Structure formats: C-alpha cells, structure tokens
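Students often ask why we bother predicting the structure of a whole assembly rather than each chain alone. The short answer is interfaces. A chain on its own may look different once its partners are present, and contacts between molecules only exist in the joint model. In this exercise we take three input lines together and write out one structure for the complete complex. Read the inputs first and try to guess which parts will touch.
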Amino acid sequence: MPADSSGASTVKRHPLDVRVAHWVAAVSFILLGLSGLGLFTPGLFFLTALFGGGETARWLHPWLGLALALSYLVLFIRFIGSCLWAQEDTTWMSHLSDAMSGREEKLPEIGKFNPGQKLYFWGMALLIVVLLVTGVVIWQAYFSTLTTIETQRMAVLIHSIAAVLAILGFIVHIHMVTWEPGTLRAMINGTVTGGWAWKHHRKWLRQVTGTKH
Amino acid sequence: MTNLWTDIRSADLVIVMGGNAAEAHPCGFKWVTRAKAERGAKLIVVDPRFTRTAAVADYYAPIRPGTDIAFLSGLIKYCIDNGKVQWDYVKPFTNAALIVKEGYGFKDGLFTGYDPAKRTYDRSSWAYEIGPDGYVKVDETLAHPRCVWNLLKEHVAAFTPEMVERICGTPKDKFLHIAAMVGEMSAPNKTMTSMYALGWTQHSYGSQNIRTMAMLQLILGNVGLRGGGVNALRGHSNIQGLTDIGLMSELIPGYLNMPHDNEPDLATYLKTRTFKPLRPNQISYWQNYPKFMVSFLKAMWGDAATKENDYHYDWIPKLDKPMYDMLLAFEMMAHGEMNGYVCQGFNPLLSISNRAKATAGLSKLKFLVVMDPLDTETANFWANHGDFNNVDPTKIQTEVIQLPTTCFAEDEGSLTNSGRWLQWHWAGADPPGQAKGDRWIMAQIHLRMKALYQKEGGKLPEPILNLDWRYKDPGNPTPDELAREMNGSALADVKDPTDKKKVLVPQGKQLPSFAFLRDDGSTACACWIYSGCYPEAGNAMARRDNTDVGDAGLFPKWAFSWPVNRRILYNRASCDLTGKPWDPTRKIIEWNGTMWTGYDVPDMLPTAKPETVMPFIMVPEGVGRLWVAGLMADGPFPSHYEPFESPVANVVAPAVHGNPAARVFAGDLKDMGDAKQYPIVGTSYRLTEHFHFWTKHNRVNAALQPEFFVELSEQLAKAKGIANGSWVRVWSKRGSIKAVACVTKRIKPMTIDGKTVHMVGVPLHWGFMGVARKGFGPNSLTPVVGDANTNTPEFKAFLLDIEPSTPPSV
Amino acid sequence: MASRAMNVVRTSATSTANAQVTFHDEVVKLIDVSKCIGCKACQTACLEWNDQVLDIGEFTGSYQVPSDLTPSMFTLMRFNEWENPKTGELEWLIRKDGCMHCADPGCLAACPAPGAIVQYDNGIVDFVAENCIGCGYCVKGCPFNIPRISAEPAKAHKCTLCSDRVAVGEGPACAKACPTEAIVFGTKPDMLKHAAGRLTDLKSRGFDNAGLYNPDGVSGTHVMYVLPHADQPELYSDLPRDPRISPWVRTWKGATKTYTSLAAMAVFVVGAFVHHVGTGANRVSSEDEEKGRRVIEGRD
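Now the answer. The structure tokens for the assembled complex follow.
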C-alpha cells in the first residue's frame, strides 16, 4: 500500500501529463492575468513592467493565451469524463451551504470532482474558448484584417469581461486549494491521502479502489 | 498663351477642351479654382472622358476624339445665329469686313487649289481682294458676299446642334447648354478663357482645332482681354522655350524661318517675310524682320558676318523639305537615309507614333547618341525586356552612346512657361556620378569638331570655324553668357534714327529691347523675342517681386515675359475703338488722350491713336483673322475632317475622309486600320501622378500610379467580358499591348451618326525602364500621320480592339 | 501662423484621457472637396515630409492608390464614381482621407499605453511612437478607421497634422502642396469663415445641400470637409454620417467596467479570506485518514 512520508495512505489522483498541463495553464493564466490587467486599465499599466514594458506585454499576451488554450485542451480531454454531471451533484448543489461550511457528512458521496470543480472546469473551458476567439479577433499583428473593426470592438469588450470572470473563478479556485489542505499535492506529486479522498471524493475513492459502498 | 496663368483668375467662363488642365497642369489650374471661388466663374469641360478636370467642372459634355472643329464650328454658328457676337469688337478688330478675291471656293470638303498628287493646296485663291490703293478691299456693311463674315457664315452653316450631335456624339441638349454659356461671353464685360493642350494639337488638323477656338474668341470679343484669350498649356516646364528658341527643323530663334533652298540670298529670303501693311496705318510688325534676321546672323558669326557678305546668310543650312520633323526623321531611318541620331532629352521609342517603326528605324542606325539624365527606353531599345521590348539584340548593330546629363534641379538657367515668362532658376543639387551639363557636352563636341575641321579641312568648314564662340570658358559656356547673347547687345553705338547724333545704346552695352535692333550689323541678338530679358541693368528673368500692380493679376515685376515684358498679347483689344476698357473693372491699359498707359506694356506703339491703328500689330491687316489668307496649309477656314482612323465616314464630306493636306508617308498609309477590323476608338493622355516617361524613375510617383492600365466603359467591358482590374490585350493595325483594365463610369459609349461607338483610353507613362512596373504606351498603337501645318502626330484619335487576356511575360 | 508652444491637454491612459479640456488657438485643416482635383500632391507631400517609403504595388482598377491607408501612407485620395439620380450626371467624388483630429478622440480614449497618444491645446491629436505598444486599440477607438499598425516595429501611424511644422508656424505639408487650395489651414474661426464663403459659392452653383462636415458626435474635428452633398456624407467613400466613439469602446474603456471588475475581484478575494477565517480550513481528520486507509486496503 502506498503511503507518504507522514505515513498516511495515498491514492494516485493526477498523472504527470495532467500535472504538467495544469501548471502550464496555471503559469500562463497568471502571466496572462498580469499582462492583460496591465492593458485592462491605465491604473494597472505598471504591471506590464513585469514583462519589460507594454510592447513585450502586448506581443507576449496572445502567445501566452495560446499556451493556456493548448494546456487547457489537455486538461479538458483528460477531465471531461470526470466532469460530466452526475445525479448526486444536484443533491450536492442543493446542500451548497453545507459544502461551503465543510459539513460534508451532509453531502452525498462525490466522484473525482465535486460539482463546484465541475462548474469551474466547464466555466473555464467556456471562458477560454471565448477568450481565444475574441483574442484572435483582436490579435493585431496577424488577424486584424480578418474581421471588421466593429467586430473587433465587440471582441475586445467581450474579451475583457470574459477575462474578469475567469479571474474571479481563478480566485475561487485558489481559495479552495488553500481552504482544503491536502489538495495542492494532487497537482504536485499527483497523489492525495486516503483521508482526503475519503473526505472530499469518497465515491471516487471507492471507484479507484474497486470497493463498493 | 495669349494671356498668362495668373490671368485665368480674371475669367468669367473657363472652357477646357482639347486638354485636361487639372490633371496635366495641376499647379496652373489653381487660377481656375481662384476664378471660380473669387469671381464666381464657371468651368466647362468638353472631353471624351470624364476627367479630373471634369470632376470640378460646372458643366461637362462628352465629345468623340477628333471632332472638335465640328463642335467649335457649331458654337460659332450658334453665336452668329443667336446674336451672340460682340459687334463693336468684331467689326473694327477682325477681318470680318475684308473682301476675299474672286475664285475662292469650298466644296465637298476641299478648298480651291487642291493637288491630290502632292496632297497640298495652291493657296493663291485664298487671297484678299486688293484695291487700287494697294490695300485690301473692305465692306464695313458686311453685305458683300465675299467679305470674310459672309464666307464664314456659309462655311459653318452645316453645323447645327443636330449635326454636332451626329458627328461629335455630344447630346444636343448638352451642346446647347454649353453654347448658351459661351454665348453669354459676347457681352463686352464678360470674358471666356480657353485652355487647351495636346488634345487639340495631336491631330492631323491640330492647328485648325486651335484656329477654330481663336475665331470663336474673336467673335466673342475675348482676345486681348483679362480673363480671355486662347491659351496653350504647354506640356513641359520649358516647351514654350523650346519653340521660342527655335529647336525645330524649320525654325531659327524667335520664330524666324529656316531658309529654303530656293532662297539663295538674304534679299530673296527677306522679300517674302517683310510683310507690308495690308490696311492703311497698320503696323505690320514683321516689317522689322530684316533687323531680327541680321542681328541673329551677327550673333552667329560675329565679326565674320558683314554687310558685304550678306551677313553670311549663305552659312545657314537651307531646307529642301518643309521641315525635318520627328516623323520624317524616323521615316528616313526606316529607309536607311538617316544613319546617325542624337537624342537630347528625348525618348522617341515611347514618344513617336508606331513604336514598331521606331524600333526598326533605330535598329538601322550606325550610331545613336542619347543625352539624358535618365536611363531611357530609347537608349535601351536594343535590349530584350520580354513582351515589353521584344527585340533580338543579336540582330541590332547600332552603336549606342549614352551621355548622362544633369536634371533641371542640377543646373541654373531660365525656363519659359506657357504664359511666356522666362523664369530664372538656380541649381539645387550637384549632378550625380558622371553626369555633365548639356552645355558642357555640346561645347566639347563643338570644340572637337572645330579642331578636326581645322586639322583636316572638309566641306564648308567656315560656319563652324567662324561660329562666334567668345565664352569665358569655351568648353562650358554659362547660362548667364547665353542669356546675355539671346538678349542682344550693341556692336556699335545704336543711334536714334530721327537724330543721328543721339546714341540710344552705346557700343558694347546690352540692348533694352528688340526695338533697338538694327539691320545694318550694329546689333547682335540671338533671339529677338527674348530681347529685354537681360538688359544692362541685369538679369530680368531673376526678378522676384510679386507686386500685383493694379490688382490686375499681371505681376509685371516677376521674372520677364516676352515680348518686352508684355503679359497679355493684343492687350490693345481690351479697349474699345476709342481706347476705353471694355470692362473698367478689368483694365489692362487705356488711351489717356495722348498715349496708352496702364498696368501692362501696351501691345501698341505708345502714341498710336486708337481709332487709326488696330490691335493686331503682328499681322499686315492689323486685325484679328477669322480668315487666314495664306499661312495655313490646310485651308483659310477650319474644316471638319475625320481622324485618319475613325469609326464613321465624314458626314459633311464623305469623299474626303481625313485632312487632305495632312502629311502621311505611303508606307504608313498602308498601316491605317479600318473600323471593320478595329471598331473601337482609341485615345491617349497623361495622368496627373506622372510626368511623361520621367517619373516612373521616381519612387513616390511610381508608387502612387504603379502600373499601366487602359480605361473602358462598363458597357464595353460587359460586351467583351472584361472585369475591372483584369488583364486585357489591346491592338491596332500597328501593334499589340497588354494592360490592366480600368472599367469606369467616366467613359461612356457614344452614338455617332446613329451608330454606337466605344472608346478605350490609353495613358502614356509606362515603359520598361525605371522603378514603376513595366508597361506599354499608346505609341505602340498610334498611326504615323502629322498635322498639315506642324506635323504633330495624331495621338488622340485612332482605332483599336480589345479582349480579355493574361499578364505579359517579363 | 505664428509659431507657438503646443501644450498637451490630454494624454492617453492617464487621468487626463477622459477629462474635459479647453482648447486654445484651435487650428483646423479645411478640405474643400469641391476644389479637389485628385492629383495626389497631398499624398506625395505627406510621404516626403514624413520620410515614408511606399511599396510599388499594382493597379487594382481604381485611381485610388494605394487602395487603403497604410502605416506609411497617412493620407489617401479616395475616389468614388457616383451617378447623381437627381441630375443623371456623373460626379467623380474625390475625398482626401486621413486623421480628423477629433476634439474627442476615440483613439486616445482607447489607448492603454500612457503617453502614446496626446492631444494638444490647439486640437492636434498626435501619436508618440516611443510610448506606443502597437496593440491596435486606437484602431478600435477611431470612428473614422484611420490608424494603421506597422509590422516591425509594431507602432500605430496616422496623420500628425504635421504637428512638427505647425509648432514652428508652418501649415501641414499637404496644404502647402495642394495646387488648387482645396486644403487650407489656419485658426478655427478663420477656417469656419472660409468654409462659409465656400458654401455660399457652392449653393449658388446649385448644391443646395452643401455643408461643412464637423461632426458633433466627436465634439467636432480639427480636419473639416466642405461637402457639396453634405446630406449624404457616405457618398464620399463612406465618410460616416454620424461618427462617434462606438458604445462598445465606451463600455470597454468606461469607468463602470473597470471599477465593477476590480471591485468584483476585491470582493472575491475578501470573501475567500472571510470564508477561510470564518469556517476554518476544511481539514482532513485522522479519522478520515483511517477510513480512507481502510477503503484503500479493501477492508470496508
């Protein structure tokens, strides 16, 4: 039986490719956020200094966007099966306050991802598609002639709104990681402790261990 | 120009016909916009295409290329029929009342005296009737059937608005609209200015196109007035200077004639040119011809030219043909009769009609010298450039010598503009590379030839050995020295003819004007009309005082205007018979009771009484010519003929298609296409983005109009299946070219004599050298036929066909 | 005109970008379409004064060359052949296109780079290449489709109204080169007066709808047109009838969007913190670990 250094039992949660994709997505998201916010409002233009100035931020941002989109595509393929809506998810959602208060005993047993994670997954997927499409439309260097300027005006507004929503989601995502200790390791060494799995994703634990309820 | 560029601002009506002033003369066109904005003047454009001038016109009417005489004859008829004649001007100031001698006639398109074998007229029947006093007979009542006015009425009788529409394709209502606008200008205080260019000259009857307008302007009383006149827009900053200085085979400077071989001595030569007045008290200024000619000969050979040796008139070459024009030169080359050619600032491979003939001619030369600041197509006529110059260099033996010269901005000197202003300019840059000034090159050739003659002798070396060449640096005469020579100087004291003790100009001094020229060898003057440009006081051409004296738009202190700084020619006619301005608000000069005074140099002896001496001092009659007795080769009146290649028969004279007196060589006549094979009218023109074949060497110009195209109507494009921006092939009997199609609403099919006629416009700025895209020009298509008087080739009206095509091979 | 120091009144991506400004000694370039002969002297002068090199392209079926504004061609004669249905006559409408120097410039409002676009107190709107990041937001901000972005380096380009010439008392190069005085330059009152004279002339020639194009939607412009058909500005190669900064751009660059977004982010961060502190971390207990172990070992 696998165990970690503290002696807790462990269970494999994320294989290497998923973890790599996640961190590529995470890093590019953060850089996108910083460079994007730099162009988002003059008050944050100073953020572009992190990239060596506005010009670099401007040309780097769309390439980072591609990196995010590609890495998220990997995550999407790997996670979609686990992110389909399950029956218990609806029940879980109706007990959202319990979920947010950590009263998981009042919740149904949950698979690999809880409904909040699933929503984040689908939400991010949608937002990244929106950001990608609108981003290409306003990618001045290569695609400025493909669409009308009026389309680009819409695109740039939608892009910024989508980005804000993604950042809000991202805040929740980070918060959840810190709120549920033991989560981050899933994306570092790929494992979680048996207790973490028992507590948060019992159904998944049973599935990966082949045991029945 | 009878007037000057800045004077156009004083017009009430501007008619641009036979030109495209906004496009080809954009800077001068400023004065049209001024006239419109400041005087409320109207602008009429009559042109086969809706041009950029038409874009700012008040009224535009289309016209088929080559039918201007019919249109203008129609206007003359309209004015006569509708009382739009300024009689107080026409009666005293034109030859309307003069009587033509019996025997003159005009029938079926031919004037009396035609010799079909020689294609020339015996003009003796076109003379005036001379009375017993030796002067032309006059009938001031205009009742005499052979007075000019009645002959004119009869001559234009056929040109009703319906006939104009039938020939020109100009809808009747449009013609009448224009006729009404033009007719208003017969009021004494209204003037119309005519602006024309190569749209009138480049026809087999080009000179007569211009004459018809001159006649109309005389009838309207518009010649000699501010905002009036007949104004040639010269196509080059100094082409006026070229003709003034006599750079044509039949001219010597100042519009003196090159002698013919039947004029062996000076007396014979002068006899037919020293015109005596044909009416009492008239000036007939050409009476002074001997003074101009002798002073010219003195400028040529200095001390060697003496009274005893006829001022060495014998050293002037004598013509055996009317002229050795460009068309004749290439005809001779084609027949191996001309073996060497010096091309100075000229690109004939793209400029002369029928490029195939030009290539053939150049290929037969022993040597070709090209003096040019640019690497011209002519200098590279032997090089293969794919479809653009499809020659086999191995078959061409011509030795080509290129002598790179300076551009205008790299040299100083004067340029003579359309308004006859001699404007001095200074060098703005040093010549690049091995480029040398034209004067240096010519002087070096002269000195070397002179040395060879000195050493080896040869036939008639004297004209060259004795050429007056007293320049500070004989190897490089300066513009200043040449300008002083053109102005003329006193070789001996010039004395007052009425008081021999009074010295008017001391020996060695510059002459104040040509009034001081003498025919006794005491003055030298290389170009009499330029005399006064460089008087003792200094270079008048360099004056830059733009004071607008009297707010008259004449700027008399700016540069120098020939003759004698006169800004408006025939300005005496701006006043009525008593010497009062027709329009006091547009005074030029007036008679103050004892002399002529005003803002301009009077075109009249200062003390000549207004009621006695008539305004047109250069002609023996003293009056403007509605009828030209002897000068025009193709008739005393202009007559409508078809272009040599035209889509319809000549409806007014079916038996005589084209101008019967136009010069055309037998071989070229065979190269004329007919409307069955080539149903579409072609015309050629400039575009404002370019200047000739120069600016395709300039990046900015080339970028702003990069590629050769031809223009055609939407209707023709549809009929031929041609898309805008696609490649087409255009061909005539003489050649075939490829171009990008410009399908436009600015060209419309016309109905000519009941038949639909299409037109294709061919601009001229492309070749195979320079930085613009390689292309062709109209001269690959145009026929070789010259105007009867000037031999200017017929570039503006020819026949072609068009079809969709593929890009040319490079 | 006298030379005069030009003071900056608006700077992109700073607090002044959307401020109310007061102009002094406003200048106007007045383009009289009715006098324009389409000679392209303005384009030539523009290329030469600004030391720009234009590629030698192809003829595409119109005198309009290049076919559009480019990063090096700041002004362009646009040609439109129009058959006037009222008169049945062809009119060749030629309009010199280029920056309108709006009083309320959309480019400046849209620009994210501080100091990349400035507006001077005489009304000239100028791009400052060293501050430009080449993002193309000015293109989206402009209601007239004027700025063009060059490839390398990526910078926005447009007519400067020859601010360098104006600063030393000269008029713009295009006005200097225009042979027919279709382009004139001077103080705003002078130009309005000149335009009024032109309109009187045009109306006397039957252009009843002649008018001055100085659109209110952008609070007026410092390049104005005298149009014979001012009732149909779109005839002149799509000159906008009622140009204004697009509502999309207004929303995008508006304070509401910025503050709402930043506030939302702040609320989320604070909310997360409060949630964390309030509920405490959702830790895995040793009991859970034990249960988990048992499941893993298959003992459940």
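Check your guess against this: Chain B has 21 helices and 31 strands.
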